[in-house]
Amino acid sequence: MPAGVTASLDGNLVKVKGSKGELSFLAPEDVTVTLDDGAISVTPRTETKRARAMWGMSRSQVANLIEGVSKGYEKKLDITGVGYKAAVAGKVLKLSLGYSHDIDYEIPAGIAIVTPKPTEIVVTGIDKQRVGQTAAEIRDFRGPEPYQGKGVRYSGEFIFRKEGKKK
């Protein structure tokens, strides 16, 4: 574990505390979690297919907790389209995405959203799942379309463009 991160075990409940906050994860009964000299180890109880699957998932979850409380997670979204823009007003993200109405998205607790430019949204937080889910919900308001490329996309995402109608 990195410096400044502490962990504790209560049965199969792993609690990790760092400079950015505190997170916990309840490991399934198929795995054993141990804490030795500042290192968390996850091992399967049996050699069944489910136990091995839970072993890998639990190991990833614990690694994500540690990275989240030490560095945090960030997802960037880009908005493409004439008149499409975003702005943060208090605890609400206001989106203009070409509909007859603006979309007001309540920012969930534990998530921070900033708009450095009107066409750029940055979602940050310590929980990887919640950051990804929030970014996916924002993208779903108007996903990128394949003909003109308008909509909300992840930064760096490639959208396969289609050719338009021929005469």
UniProtKB/TrEMBL annotation:
NCBIfam families to which the protein is assigned, alphabetical: L6_bact (TIGR03654)
Large ribosomal subunit protein uL6 alpha-beta domain ranges (all copies): 2-72, 81-154
Pfam families: Ribosomal_L6
Sorted UniProt keywords: Ribonucleoprotein, Ribosomal protein, RNA-binding, rRNA-binding
Entry similarity comment: Belongs to the universal ribosomal protein uL6 family.
SUPFAM superfamilies: Ribosomal protein L6
GO cellular component: cytosolic large ribosomal subunit
Function: This protein binds to the 23S rRNA, and is important in its secondary structure. It is located near the subunit interface in the base of the L7/L12 stalk, and near the tRNA binding site of the peptidyltransferase center.
An example molecular function term from Gene Ontology annotations: structural constituent of ribosome
Protein name stated in the entry: 50S ribosomal protein L6
Keyword ATP-binding among UniProt keywords: no
Keyword Ribosomal protein: yes
GO biological process: cytoplasmic translation
